[in-house]
Amino acid sequence: MKExxxxxxxxxxxxxxxxxxxxxxxxxxxxxTLPVYxxxxxxSPSMVGIVVSSFSVTALxxxxxxxxxxxxxxxxxxxxASQCIICACMLLYGVVDSLQGLVIVRLVHGIGIGCSGxxxxxxxxxxxxxxxxxxxxxxxALAQSxxxxxGPAAGLYLVNAIGFSPSYFLAAGCLLVAICGVGLIRxxxxxxxxxxxxxxxxxxxxxxGKGVALMLLATSFSCMGAYVVLYGYSVxxxxxxxxxxxxxxxxxxxxxxxxxxxxxFGAPRMLAVGIAFFAASYVAxxxxxxxxxxxxxxxxxxxxxxxxxxxxxxxxxxxVPPSRRGAASNTAFMGLDLGMLTGPIIGGMVxxxxxxxxxxxxxxxxxxxxxxxxxxxxxxxxxxxxNLQRR
Length: 391
Hints:
Layout: H1 2-5, H2 11-40, H3 45-53, H4 55-72, H5 75-93, H6 99-125, H7 133-140, H8 142-162, H9 164-183, H10 199-202, H11 208-234, H12 241-265, H13 267-287, H14 291-318, H15 325-358, H16 361-371, H17 373-390
């Protein structure tokens, strides 16, 4: 009986993994191709950053109001509603043909993103035993790894084969599958709190440190998503889909491994290891000029963010009781949103400022990757403090 209680595997958990797979596949298809789409519409590097990161503005604005709702109403129904918003935006991406239109749709998209991520994470936490929390969240995140195997490469291939509009329509189809999957889940009973717009209901103070660390790492990580394809093209590497395939396959091994090791040795120790890999990946990107070098960067990056992302999110959820996990998840995702908002904008500004001085676009990109080491160093100092406190 004890062994059965400690198992993470159940129908709702598996169903939510499949939901995560399809919604992540749509997200990676869009996130990888939107910079290319914006560039094709004549966007400058800084404008590409604005298009990619603008969703974070509305995601941040919705969180103070959405956070209390996560713990007061049906998480299942709220998740389905947020996925419907994202699905509609995928359809709209296939219709708009201007940079202004892309930004507007991206802002609406942020409302759905601002709710769907923390809702899915807090909902899946209701089906996990406390003793397997870190590994359960890490294995759940493997669905994103599978999506990264298919999503970015498929998105780039489909754009070249059939164009931008049909590609985004197919991404909307993935969201429809995810919505149907959520509908199959029977939400467990939990004590629901009264909806109140209070600070401790919007955010969990216990999870703020985890959110700040996640924000710093997401600042650097978002630049990789926004600019790595354009950077590869600038140095003559056309097979950038391989970068994402390698990145994703490595996540399949690193995420469950680091999650299991975190249950055994503690999350702070494993986070220190993950940040070291993460920082090394940006050094590798700064000197990458061929496909092999990009593959090395992908391996290092997957070990880094693949370790740190799920561990910080699971640590945030574990810092509060189940009735407040919506607020804790909201806090962690707010950090993620801030990083996703500022990273591409800062990266684009660095590229534009460096190009006249360095004389070429590839060298400007290389400098930007090195600048992105600064947020990673900040996250490492936070994790170092946790390790010292633990000792």
